[in-house]
Amino acid sequence: MSYVVQRLLTFPLIxxxxxxxxxxxxxxxxxxxxxxxxxxxxGLLTPVQRETLAAYFGIDQPIWAQxxxxxxxxxxxxxxxxxxxxxxxxxxxLERFPLTLQLSLMSMVIAxxxxxxxxxxxxxxxxxxxxxxxxxxxxxxxxxxxFVVGILIIYVLSVxxxxxxxxxxxxxxxxxxxxxxxxxxxxxxxxGFAFAASVTRISRSAMLxxxxxxxxxxxxxxxxxxxxxxxxxxxxxxLIPVVTLSGVEFGYLLGGAVIVEQIFALPGLGRLVLDxxxxxxxxxxxxxxxxxxxxxxxxNLLVDLAYVALDPRIRIGRR
Amino acid sequence: MGKMMSSLFxxxxxxxxxxxxxxxxxxxxxxxxxLTPHDPLKLFAIDRLKAPSQTYWFGTDLLGRDAxxxxxxxxxxxxxxxxxxxxxxxxxxxxxxxxxxWWGGIWDGIFMRVMDVLLAFPAILLALLIIAIVGPGTMTxxxxxxxxxxxxxxxxxxxxxxxxxxxxxxxxxxxFGSSQGYVLTRHLLLNLVAPLVVQVTLALAWALxxxxxxxxxxxxxxxPTPSLGLMLAESRNLMTHAPWLMIFPAxxxxxxxxxxxxxxxxxxxxxxxxxxxxxx
Lengths: 319, 280
Prior knowledge:
The complex is a heterodimer. Chain A is mainly α. Helices cover 75% and strands 0% of the residues of chain A. Chain A has 13 helices and no strands. Chain A is globular. The two termini of chain B are 24 Å apart. Chain B is 71% helix and 0% strand. By secondary structure, chain B is mainly α. The longest helix of chain B has 37 residues, at 67-103. At the A-B interface, helix 1, helix 6, helix 7, helix 8 and helix 11 of A face helix 4, helix 5, helix 9, helix 10 and helix 11 of B. Chain A: The chain crosses the membrane at residues 7-29, 103-123, 144-166, 178-199, 289-310.
């Protein structure tokens, strides 16, 4: 069975597993759902009212029946109603998603435009001072958590430039593109920092691998200029692992940057998950977690397919 | 083991990494024994928000607690959670990976699909989900990080275990009657030590990062126990008045992660000669 077919077949299976896990996990929360929904007011309910409510939400049925009902709802785009926002969960998620998407894209652009040139530079000057400097920087970058970067950026901006990044609200890209990009630039740098470091490291090592290949030696010996060898002959092949890494990383970012959104007070998907968890809005937790896992799986699937498309040698078996 | 340590010490980044880890372990042990310059929980009410000085090496916080002592206990807390969670993940992941490879067939399919399901969640999200169920705390952090990393170890072990299983020496051992347990531990597990050691070191770096992140969000170690992430989070509103409250925890978190990353990279270089020249 070819790798692609195998991958496509297991995809729905894993998705089903994810939905079961999320569903069961939420039901493991101590306390019954009605108390969770109504809080202290639940104490005022008469037993009959409780039963009516339980029947209304379908939680008087066995768990597998509840799961099937929830699953059927999922296929109709019904993720339930958020108790914090009093709106359908899917509506709330789709309100938050554009920010997260834009932030992820901006971080990726930053990471790639910094990381790839640095990696190529380091590889072409292997073991020389500039290579060592890049390697040390990349190592430091990879070891710095994004919340440390974020806090340092806010500190430097406020102390040395007397500038506080706009927080709380978000200008959508299509309302005012410049304001929107300006607003997300510091969070994007924060997220792009460690990402750029990984891109640097992987493009350096991929480039070193490719530079020792026979076809590169051939290109050199037929008299191609060093620049042309690096940019035209070596780089396209060295980019394959970079594509894989960026894809996986992008999948992570689409899940919402919980901590960075918290630091910069951005209303994205990560903040939504955090709010849902701290305020015990279980329909929202369930919906957002499933949405994020779904995105993550889709992006990973696309990355794997892209990998196969870019490198025909990998068609059978798992990596 | 001794040989590994000495070649690690000869590797430039391995040496720096080992020194950092050593210092952190020392701080953690002293912190556990209560050998901190001051009581990390004691409020020195007249010395609130003092800048670093001879008495308070890293200054004091809003409540007048000694930042250096709190950092030492914070390091202990981070190391404890990181080591405990990675230990659990290593053991659980190794067992799952080994049995998956050894039994093969339907078991392999079931085990690895379950691992795939766990891997479908971004790490911090899975941790948050677990915290949502059990509530925050030290034990929850350990469990959350352990569950996040178990599938990674299962994968790291399963691949090489599958190819070892095909090797002649394993066949030979089975033919002359070694028990399954003996073959699994002696012939498979021992040969997996090298990739595992690298993975464990890198996982420790990630565990430190995740722990700091969770406690930064207030969902990890709960106050009054000091934790690096929470110290950093608390410093936010005071950063212009008391930057030392931000700088020291930030650097402490970063250096710790750096130490394990450097050591992990050096180990990979030493144990896998093919990657020697490539890794940054």
